[in-house]
Predict the structure.
Amino acid sequence: MSYLDFLQSKIDIAPESGFTITPDNINPILKPHQRDAVMWAVKGGRRALFEAFGLGKTMQELEYSRIVSERTGGQSLITMPLGVKQEFYRDALDKLKIPAPEYVRTMEEARNSKNQILITNYERVRDGDIDPTYFTAAAGLDEASVLRSFGSKTYQVFLDKFKGVPFKLVATATPAPNKYKELIHYAGFLEVMDTGQALTRFFKRDSTKANNLTLYPGKEDDFWLWVSSWALYISKPSDLGYDDTGYDLPPLKVFYHELKTKSSTEVDKDGQVRLFQDASVSLPAAHRIKRNSIAERVKEAERIINRSRFEHFILWHDLEDERREIKKALPDAVEIYGTQDLDIRERNTIDFSEGKFRLLATKKELSGSGCNFQRHCHRAIFVGIDYEFNDFIQAIHRIYRFLQEKQVIIDIIYMDSEAEVLAALKKKWKQYDEMTAKMAAIVKKYGLSGTSIIEKLKRHIGVKRMEKQGVHYRAINNDCILEMENMPDNSVGLIHTSIPFGNHYEYTASYNDFGHNPDTERFFEQMDFLSPHLLRILKPGRVFACHVKDRVLFGSQTGTGMPTIEPFHALCIAHYMKHGFQYFGMITVVTDVVRENNQTYRLGYTEQCKDGSKMGVGCPEYILLFRKLPTNRTKAYADEPVQKSKDDYSLAEWQLDAHAFWPSSGDRFLTSQEISAMPISQVQRTFKKFAQNNVYDFHRHVEITKEIDAAGRLSKTFMTAPPASKSPDVWDDINRMRTLNTSQSQKRLQLHVCPLQIDIVERIINRYSNQGDVVLDPFGGLMTVPYMAVKMGRYGVGIELNADYFRDGVNYLESVEAQISQPTLFDFIRSGSEEQGQEGA
């Protein structure tokens, strides 16, 4: 396989595991958009239908199951919420003219059934009454929003129980209403991509807080294209190029009824008196408000109903006390509740959908998914509200859907102290509409064929090469594998780098990125293209110093329930030895365990007290030392030995270098993004110190000021980078602004995900290279290694794929070549501390 072939194999598109059918294989009763969706899903094998309410998902699920069962000779299982099976019976018998699917409660019933299509509910599967793996033909999930909550019991159980089923179809109208990453839970169920892998692939980590993941800005289009390869979004038939006649949503009116909270006070454990009106910022207090306002809210619902005595209403509520109050105020209301006999619950659902009674009181979690009530009802009252948008929008669409003939009226009752909850629901509603529109646009643009999606994603392979060369350095913006193919043999005196840590992070939106791999095995497959070049270009006898760190594997991804450690440093040792390097030692760099725990939550003090048996230790960093064997192996001296004068290299320094434990100050370079996140006053202080300690250069002053401006840190109200005075007769230390203190400023820093410390680099270069040697970093980042090489009298070469890091690194290299000390992270810390000390004095 060529390197280009390898990169193309990284393109994320869901594999097709089904078979091709023609329109003739589809029941002619299906409308064109339904026919196309079924053909697409059957060909894909494991797919999702995310279609608007009323577009006919039930018929599509039945037809998908029929086709797959007939082709494979097995049975299909459709799993659904309680109370929905009558919709499947009706569509099978009245529309598709096929035998009604049989409802099964146990595996004995399933094995004895002669039907091709069987149906059951989620509880039967979750509790083990039904084994999905028995159904070799297909497994469908109706209203699959049950999977959306990652980490829930239902999701984890279903992920395992359906694993390996050849054909899977999930169907829902409300995927990921407010968090894009929830879509990966569907991908995990469909076995399109492991959930942990998808998190790494598309989401960046907050290095200061675990689980705070946001979509990479450069990955947004790729993410949606990937989703569209396994999930079909349709908001109306025209999304697939068909006529929308008959698919116009009815008018929708939403009325908000705000009720006043009774004035009341409470005293907390600290003796502080709090008003109940502040409950919007306290969940416990908000629950108390909800319970204490039941009578008022139900009375308002009664008033709304009494004004429309002949219309049918659904009363959505959340609490059992609300249900009892509704029944007391409205005795004619029929109830659905959790402890109710399942047959009675189902009968009440069917009777209300058929218009046999006027008022239905139920919870969103019981009747909010799958039930179609639009034939006889167009009014709904939310007796209370909460933050659960998915349940909320599902409940609305029980009546607001295609084929609804009347204007839909929604009444939402809430207390004035719940204004924040209402605002959150409205915001999520807007996000839901925007996301649905975006996916519909992708379907329109690329159609249902994966070919055009692949061509689009191929555009992210490769990088436009750039090079910046000075007298003592060379910096290249390129894929290091492609760049090193043209580097001469035996030309580099030292290779020092911090490699990407497997598939832990991605640094660019390019498929060339080493971090863009599904797992560690694939990472090392890409490294197989690089490592032979590392050995080839290194001079005989010289050193490759590789900075690595072991990786935390979370229990939610591995299934162990506890964090474990992937010995990444050991895997690296095995890899480079396989490629001919001689491993001869390892330097340990201890890291901050408190900061690590803030990032991973795996070493918590509270958990240690609960059960210390599962608690590990912090992960240090390592510098792995490898050597290319010299030509003459009698004494194993390098062809060009790294020699030191004992006058310049003391015995004391040797003792510290020879020790396998190297503490580090942690000082490192800053990115322009970090500078742009800092207060302008802090930038001003650092520039002043910089100007005082270096010979003034007007042109350099202009260039630095331009860089500060480009980072958005050049103030228009005061001079950010003024000339500094070196004369006692000219005062320049009158600070006219108050500034943040150091600790506050530090909280605003965007931390580089894998920094390479300056002092570590300095010691490696000093120990393992000679003056004038070429020192290479194939993963240059901010060019710390070539920067220190230049500063220490070597020739620095850095290769970096990320264009932003490359530009920042070039600035540092230009600076050091001009013999100017560029500010580092510690300069900001020190300058802030000094000012704080002066203010305190």
Notes: The chain has four domains: 14-214, 252-446, 466-669+749-836, 680-739. DSSP finds 33 helices and 27 strands in the chain. Confidence is low (pLDDT under 50) at residues 275-281, 727-753.
